[in-house]
Structure formats: structure tokens, C-alpha cells
Write a structure and sequence with these properties.
By secondary structure, the protein is an alpha+beta fold. Helices cover 34% and strands 18% of the residues. It is built from 26 helices and 24 strands. The strands form 6 sheets. Strands 14, 15, 16, 17, 18, 19 and 20 form a 7-stranded antiparallel sheet that branches. The protein starts with 13 loop residues before the first helix and ends with a helix. Bound molecules: 2-(butylsulfanyl)adenosine.
Length: 743
């Protein structure tokens, strides 16, 4: 049961209270759905809503079609009634030239029609977004929404009122401006302040930095609500709403629901929802709306608004509670239209909904009248398109690519298609789950999307176009490049090749890792050189490094004698290493430096590590099931073992020890953080010494830190240690602890 509203006037009659609630809910819904600025918590909104519902149930005679409770309702229809438009719904000429010249052509045509010469000032336009949805005519009589109709053939559309009423951004009734002051689009210095850098243009964006009193100094004049008002605009679906709708559809299909399908794109989903005969289903499809014009409006003689410009008309619609895109702006002449087209082209991918272009309209309504129409298209407006971001094509094959780190990615090979401004022949399917979810198969007709610089992806399959009975895609269980096992670990989305040492795709990464300063360390063997050696084909696997001679190196571009000599020397030096460095250098997944040290300490010899069972590996501190399995799988790949043998044959060696009978160590169980510059030891050396003595070295200070070793110029870590009361010691104290016998 609803609790009483503290602000309700005491002693209000039910009718008064209902009117009050409707006004409040109307205002809150506008703030929430149109302005995206909720003013009360959802629970409070629900409470008011329920109170109104209860009152309406108790007093059915006071029910009202414009009540916020009356959005969903009515029975499923057999068909839609037709609606003859009072003013035809025109279409708009499309400029197919997606380059800047598209805007120039339009301006040139307009100037010619108006008889303007070179010396005349630029024509003022309104630049708008071209939303990718469907056109709707909303008819209000005395401020109440009485009918919503599709465009149809322009003369006659369909009555889709029941469905349109479910769109919360569309007011069921409109009142004179009641907007909060901060959105002061009615104020000259607010809405019409000059945008820096764009001479003379004004925008419809929020004017939050210009708090004004609503209705004061009003521009446009605060017109009263006309007796007849038709608002025209686009019903569309946001991309995130589209994604979640499709997700729900997929769940239904997976549960065996009949007659359900996923939607190809937001536009189709929106069109399907608007033309849905059952309003209850339409209510579950999340639609949005932008206003961009009007149809029939009561004339000024009959108390209707007397607009001078299209921009003024849009501002007024906004003040009456209709969503108008914030990007909408005036533009002086072709150059500002071009700038708008370019700007929105760049920002297009960041918008939460699809646009397929921009629309330019002559701002002055008098000039619009003068320009008139050709056939069914106004001469005063044009749509200037962007290259389409989605296209249809067919899947020729599904390949699996292996990345530098061994990640397997399924990729659809496509019949070439021009999309997003380039010819696309590959589209990523991301991973196994995604490929399965979309159920892409060879021979399928698919929608590919290329937005901005993002890698092209397959958005969906047109299932009704599937002709062949191609099998479902499955990820290969072996690496397509090297044939090693491909595994997908628990909780991971990706399959990975386990042949890290041998796999052609992972060559560069494997060599770089091996040569790293904290691994086997080959001084001077960095990114560029590895790139060069591998690309020239002189190094394929790690042992090839040790077979390099001066002649092979001298053949490389930009390789001076001296550098070649240095590299050979560094390679020679690297042959003498330690077991932990070597183990770490192999690049086994999940085997970091610390784990490599533990493995070496525990097993003593490389062969013992290579042959250890998962159970034996689990005995090593620091090694859990995922790590144990990863080590086992790595050494189960014959190619990896071969590389290890060849490295040993090339002379890579280390002192081998006995399996550790855990000698007590002086720093066992203690965690250190090293910060600042120490007098004698480098930070790496200090780390090695602490770890060799059984201690751990962490990167940041926490309550679990036992000691912070601080050198000169120690910064925030020292401050934090002091704040947490962690012991701070210097290098000398550390060296003393290292020398002390274990406690
Ligand atoms: S104005 C007389 N403005 O594009 C001008 N249309 O044919 C009538 N559209 O069906 C349309 N965004 O659904 C206009 N900012 C915009 C628009 C827009 C999208 C759609 C509209 C119409 C088609 C043009």
C-alpha cells in the first residue's frame, strides 16, 4: 500500500490528488526519459505511480487516457487502421556524394534557386542528425496525444497509437514550458549563445552553465499549446537497448520459444516494434524518439505559434517536452555545413544510436516557402549520407588466426564488400562462444559492421537466407599454425596454442621473452632486432639464435659490424644462465619469475620439472591446478621439448642442484617492498637477494608488508609505510638480515 505523500495537500479530493500525482509523474518522467536527469529515486517514482494506480482503480470514472499509468494497454489488433495525413509526410532528397562536396552541392542549388549572387551573405541552415529509425507523426489535440501514425506512402499511414504510447520519451500530454531553469533553452544567452570557434552558429545542447529563470526574457516567445499540433520525428532504438533486446530474444530461442527471432539491426528492431499488433509486446521493446519537425499545426489566427525559423520551432518543441538532439545547430553557409558533416562523422561512433547521415534544412520558414517542392521532396532540405557501416555479404570460409601470444581467433573470410569506407574481406568472430552465439557458418549471408577504426565484425546471420546445411563452427583442438594442442582454460574465453617455443605465430614474442633482462638475458636483443631477424627468416626458433654467424648478421639492413659483434657476444654470455631464468625464459603460460624460482628450488633439475606429473607439480608452493596443468601441457608438446634439447645442445647451461630439502631460510615468510635508490644494490639485485633468502618482494605497500627497504628519493611508498606503521629499514639493515642465520 502506498504511504501518504508528505507534500500532498491535506484534504485534497481524490480528483485533485490524482491531478497532482499525474503532474508530478509527468514532470519526473520528462526529467528521467527526455533529459536523462532523474530528480527523485526510482523507488519514489514507483511509490507515486502506485498511489495513482490505486486511486484510479478506486475511482474508474476519473481515469484519463493521458495518465502516466495509461501507457500500455489495449488488446492485440488484427490489423492497423489507416490514417490519412492532414499534411503529407514528405521524404527528403538524399545527397549520395558522401564527401564534403555533397554539402557544397546543396548550398549551390539553394543559392541558385533563391537568386543569390557571390556578394550575398551565406544562407542560414539548421544542421541535424539523420536518425536511422522510422518516421512518426504524433497528433496532439488540446495538448493530448490522440494519434500516432507511420509515414506509409506519405499520404496514408498506419495508426500505431497503442505502441507509440509505450515510448516514455513521448509526452502523452503537453503543457506550457515547465522545464527546470538550468535547461534554459528558452533564454537568449543560454540556447542562443555563440559557440566558440563557429561564427554565428548556435546549438541545442544543454545550457547547464547558464542557469536562467524559465520563461523570463523568453526566446522563442513562450507559445501556448496550439489546439492542433502534429510533431514529426524518428522512432529509433539505442544500440545498448538493441543489444539487450537481442540477448533476451536469444534466451527465449534457447529455451525453445516458437516464433521468436533476433533482429538484424536497431532500425529493423524499431520498425518491428512499432508495427507490432500486440501492444503488450511492443511495450517490452525499448524505443526512443527524436523530434525534427511538425505536420499540421493550428495557424496563428487560431492561436497557433507563429514561427519564423525552423530552429525556433525545434526550440519550442524542446520546451514543450519533446526530445530534440543536442547536436542540432544552425550553420552559416556551405563551410559550416561541411564542418558539421565532418564533426558528426568523427563523433558518429560515440553516439548511443545509429545515424546514417546528417540533414540540412534552410532555417528561414519564409525561404523554405519560397523554395517549395519538386515532386514530393522539398528543395529546402537534403540528407547528406555517411558511408554505410553495415553491409550484407557471404561467408566464404571460417579461418582461425593465431596471435603473437598464442591466442586463437576465428575469422570469417568474406566475399569482398565495401563498408565503412573500405573493402572488407575479413571479419572477426572474436572467440568460440561468440562464433557459436551468432552461429556463423560457411555459405551464410551475414551483416558485417565496420565502425570507425574498429576491426570489422560479423553482427548477425540472416538465417532465412541459409541454404546449405553447413555444420556449426567448432574451434580446432590443435593450433592451425604449428599443430600443438590448443587449450581453453576454465573461466577463459580464448583458446591458446601451447606450442609457444615452436609456433610460427608466436616466434617473435617467444624470442623477446627469452632474451628479456630478467629471463635468460641476451643484451641488445630487443623488439626491432627480433622483428628483423624473424622477418628475414634467419631465426625461426630459439636455438637458431645460437647458430647466428657474422655473415648472416652482416646481411641485415642497418646492422653495423660492431652491433653484430656485440650481439654474438651477448648470445655467448647468455649460454651461462640459471635454471630459474631458463624456466622463466621458456614463456610457459602462468609461469612467472617467482614460480620459475620455486620450480627450480623444488626440483633442482630441468628434467625433473619436464617430467613431473601434475600431482608432483602441485607439491610446489605457488603452484595451483591451472599452473600445474599449463606446465604439463607445455612439456607434453614434442616440439617444445625438442627446442629445449636443442638449446642445451647449443651450449645453454646452468648449475643443476638437488631437489630442495627445504633448508630454513633467513627471510622465509617475510614480505618486502623496495623503494628509492639503494647505495650498493640495484633494485633487481636486492629483489634477487631477498627471494634467494626465501622472502617475497611486493610492488606496493599494504598492511601485509613486513619491511619497506628505503633508499634515497623514496616517495609515496615510504609515506604509506609510515602511515601504516610498517617497519622501514635501510640497505645496511637488509644486508644484515640476509647474513643472519635463519630464525
Ligand atoms: S526531415 C520534409 N529530419 O529520413 C522533410 N528526416 O526521407 C522530412 N530522418 O523518412 C524529413 N532524421 O524518417 C528529417 N533530422 C531529420 C531526420 C529525418 C531522419 C528520416 C525520416 C524520413 C527520411 C528522409
Amino acid at each position: 500500500m502506498a504511504t501518504p505523500d508528505l507534500f500532498a495537500s491535506p484534504g485534497a479530493t481524490p480528483a485533485e490528488r490524482m491531478a497532482q500525482l499525474r503532474a508530478q509523474l509527468h514532470q519526473h518522467a520528462h526529467l528521467y526519459y527526455v533529459l536523462d536527469e532523474p530528480s527523485i529515486p526510482d523507488a519514489e517514482y514507483d511509490r507515486l505511480f502506485q498511489e495513482l494506480q490505486a486511486l484510479e482503480a478506486a475511482h474508474p470514472e476519473l481515469a484519463s487516457p493521458d495518465s502516466p499509468t495509461a501507457r500500455v494497454g489495449g488488446k492485440a489488433l488484427d490489423q492497423f487502421a489507416s490514417v490519412r495525413h492532414a499534411v503529407p509526410m514528405l521524404s527528403i532528397r538524399t545527397e549520395t556524394d558522401t564527401e564534403a562536396s555533397g554539402a557544397q552541392n546543396f548550398d549551390t542549388r539553394v543559392r541558385k534557386e533563391l537568386g543569390l549572387g557571390e556578394g550575398d551573405p551565406p544562407v542560414e541552415y539548421v544542421a541535424e542528425l539523420k536518425f536511422d529509425g522510422l518516421a512518426i507523426n504524433l497528433r496532439y489535440e488540446h495538448g493530448v496525444l490522440v494519434q500516432a501514425a507511420t509515414r506509409g506512402d506519405g499520404e496514408t499511414g498506419e495508426d500505431v497509437t497503442q505502441n507509440i504510447r509505450t515510448i516514455r520519451q513521448i509526452p502523452l500530454r503537453i503543457d506550457a514550458p515547465t522545464l527546470p531553469a538550468a535547461r534554459g533553452s528558452l533564454h537568449p544567452e543560454g540556447a542562443l549563445r555563440l559557440r566558440p570557434g563557429v561564427a554565428g552558429s548556435v546549438t541545442l545542447a544543454g545550457e547547464d552553465d547558464n542557469p536562467t529563470v524559465p520563461g523570463s526574457l523568453g526566446f522563442p516567445p513562450a507559445f501556448s499549446i496550439p489546439a492542433v499540433l502534429e510533431v514529426r520525428g524518428e522512432v529509433y532504438m539505442r544500440r545498448d537497448d538493441f543489444e539487450s533486446l537481442n540477448e533476451k530474444q536469444r534466451e527465449k530461442i534457447a529455451k525453445g520459444a516458437k516464433g521468436e527471432k533476433t533482429f538484424v539491426n536497431p532500425r529493423n528492431a524499431a520498425a518491428g516494434a512499432v508495427r507490432q499488433l500486440d501492444p503488450a509486446i511492443a511495450a517490452q521493446r525499448p524505443l526512443s524518439f527524436f523530434a525534427y519537425g511538425v505536420g499540421e499545426v493550428a495557424p496563428p489566427e487560431a492561436g497557433g505559434p507563429d514561427f519564423d525559423t525552423h530552429f525556433q520551432l525545434l526550440l519550442t518543441l524542446k520546451s514543450w517536452g519533446f526530445p530534440v538532439a543536442a547536436q542540432t545547430q544552425t550553420a552559416q553557409g556551405a563551410s559550416e555545413l561541411i564542418a558539421f558533416h565532418e564533426k558528426m562523422g568523427r563523433e558518429r561512433d560515440q553516439l548511443p544510436y545509429d545515424i546514417d547521415g546528417v540533414v540540412y534544412k534552410v532555417n528561414s520558414l519564409a525561404l523554405q516557402k519560397k523554395l517549395g517542392f519538386v515532386t514530393r521532396e522539398p528543395r529546402w532540405a537534403v540528407a547528406h549520407k555517411y558511408p554505410a557501416q553495415e553491409q550484407m555479404t557471404t561467408v566464404l570460409a571460417i579461418d582461425v588466426q593465431v596471435g603473437r601470444t598464442g591466442k586463437l581467433t576465428p575469422v570469417a573470410k568474406l566475399a569482398p564488400v565495401f563498408v565503412g569506407g573500405v573493402t572488407v574481406t575479413n571479419a572477426t568472430l572474436h572467440n568460440e562462444d561468440e562464433a557459436r552465439r551468432k552461429d556463423v557458418r560457411i555459405g551464410d549471408t551475414v551483416i558485417v559492421r565496420r565502425a570507425g577504426d574498429v576491426i570489422p565484425e560479423v553482427v548477425s546471420v540472416l538465417l532465412d537466407k541459409r541454404t546449405q546445411d553447413a555444420p556449426q563452427f567448432t574451434m580446432p583442438r590443435t593450433c592451425p599454425v604449428c599443430g600443438s594442442a590448443a587449450v581453453r582454460e576454465e573461466g577463459e574465453a580464448d583458446y591458446r596454442c601451447t606450442g609457444g617455443l615452436f609456433c610460427g605465430a608466436q616466434r617473435k614474442e617467444a624470442i623477446l621473452h627469452y632474451a628479456h633482462r630478467r629471463a635468460v638475458e641476451v643484451e641488445g636483443l630487443g623488439d626491432k632486432l627480433v622483428e628483423q631477424l624473424v622477418d628475414a627468416g634467419v631465426v625461426r626458433t630459439l636455438p637458431d639464435l645460437y647458430k647466428l654467424g657474422l655473415t648472416a648478421l652482416a646481411g641485415l639492413e642497418r646492422m653495423a659490424d660492431k652491433s653484430a659483434q656485440n650481439l654474438l657476444q651477448a648470445l655467448e654470455k647468455s649460454k651461462s644462465t640459471t635454471l630459474p631464468r631458463f624456466l622463466f625464459g621458456l614463456g610457459i603460460r602462468h609461469v612467472g619469475e617467482a614460480t620459475a624460482k620455486e620450480l627450480a628450488r623444488h626440483f633442482g633439475k630441468l628434467d625433473a620439472v619436464m617430467d613431473a606429473s601434475e600431482a608432483q607439480l602441485l607439491e610446489v608452493s605457488d603452484v595451483g591446478p591451472i599452473v600445474a596443468q599449463s606446465i604439463r601441457t607445455f612439456f607434453d608438446q614434442p616440439h617444445n621439448r625438442e627446442v629445449v634439447e636443442q638449446l642445451r645442445a647449443c651450449g645453454v647451461h646452468w648449475p643443476e642442484g638437488e631437489p630442495a630439502a627445504r633448508a630454513p631460510q633467513p627471510l622465509s615468510g617475510k614480505t618486502f617492498v623496495i623503494t628509492g635508490t639503494l647505495p650498493a644494490l640495484s633494485r633487481d639485485e636486492a629483489k634477487d637477494r631477498v627471494e634467494a633468502a626465501g622472502g617475497k618482494v611486493a610492488g606496493s605497500v599494504s598492511k601485509k608488508t613486513d619491511y619497506v627497504v628505503a633508499g634515497t628519493e623514496a616517495g609515496s611508498k615510504l609515506t604509506k609505510a609510515q602511515a601504516l606503521g610498517v617497519a622501514v629499514i635501510d640497505e645496511a639493515a637488509l644486508l644484515a638480515m640476509l647474513a643472519a642465520p635463519a630464525a
